[in-house]
Design brief:
Layout: E1 13-18, E2 24-29, E3 34-41, E4 44-52, E5 57-62, E6 68-73, E7 79-82, E8 88-89, E9 100-105, E10 111-116, E11 121-125, E12 134-136, E13 145-150, E14 155-160, E15 165-169
Antiparallel strand pairs: 1-2, 2-3, 3-4, 5-6, 6-7, 7-8, 9-10, 10-11, 11-12, 13-14, 14-15
């Protein structure tokens, strides 16, 4: 097998994701809060779009159905972009108390959760983005939440600096 290394010209990348269909690479920049989108064409990347953000990303994820792109950020905002509308921001009313470290979409792409320094997990309904978020308060009361991932459509696993892995079920 041969391995190829392709470089994307960003001085400090801060999170990246590849779309479920494998044709788009999203890369967050740390130095200036921007999101770069590249088309993957064979073994090369062609820059498609550059999006200015209010805060740098810490983790970027595409929804499993490929219709949304979400990100955890160093700001209190939750980034949610509509892929089918040229990556336009989706208006929502979700926020956090501090920097978020991790984000994840549910397997059915309905929910997105973010978590981070404030020890809480915020779960937003992507099908009803103007509805208030579900908040799991003090999900890791002794420290920062480093990662959140969905186990199924209603269950979230989280790991934190408290050296615990916890499971949370949302009731909808």
């Amino acid at each position: 097998k041969q391995w190829y290394q392709r470089r994307v010209a960003i001085t400090a990348g801060n999170g990246c994701a590849i779309s479920p269909c494998g044709t788009v690479l999203a890369v967050g920049a740390k130095e200036a809060p921007k999101l770069y989108l590249y088309d993957i064409e064979g073994s090369s990347f062609v820059q498609r779009q550059e999006i200015a953000l209010t805060a740098a990303t810490t983790e970027i994820k595409f929804s499993p159905d490929g219709k949304l792109l979400g990100a955890a950020t160093v700001g209190r905002t939750v980034l949610l972009l509509d892929v089918e509308k040229s990556y336009k921001p989706v208006q929502h009313c979700w926020s956090t108390q501090s920097k978020t470290m991790s984000c994840s979409f549910s397997p059915d792409s309905r929910f997105m959760c973010v978590a981070g320094v404030d020890t809480n997990i915020v779960v937003g309904d992507c099908s009803q983005p103007m509805e208030p978020a579900i908040k799991i308060i003090r999900a890791h009361p002794l420290g920062t939440i480093n990662r959140v991932r969905w186990l199924d459509d209603k269950t979230i696993a989280s790991s934190g600096s408290d050296m615990q892995v916890r499971q949370h079920t949302i009731n909808v």
